[in-house]
Design brief:
By secondary structure, the protein is mainly alpha-helical. The protein has one domain. The chain is built from five helices and no strands. The longest helix has 19 residues.
């Protein structure tokens, strides 16, 4: 039982491949909803602050975000 409780379920989990079209749609819709809800894009800066927790992956994520059409919405502010 102790061994079961000490296992990290994410260690054995395979991350599925993301469909870029769906990610672009998601980024666009999240930006649209946030802008509609807050009335401006001030939420973007706060949202991107969570990237601090990514440590080494932060740079990779920001590089990807800069290279995508809808990702650029998040970096314009």
């Amino acid at each position: 039982m102790a061994a079961l409780l000490s296992q990290d379920p994410l260690d054995s989990m395979q991350v599925p491949a993301w469909d870029d079209g769906k990610l672009q749609f998601l980024l666009g819709e999240l930006h649209r909803i946030g802008t509609s809800y807050f009335g401006n894009t001030s939420f973007v800066e706060t949202s991107l602050e969570v990237l601090e927790e990514l440590q080494g992956d932060k740079g990779k994520f920001l590089e990807w975000l800069r290279s995508t059409p809808k990702g650029k919405l998040w970096l314009q502010t």
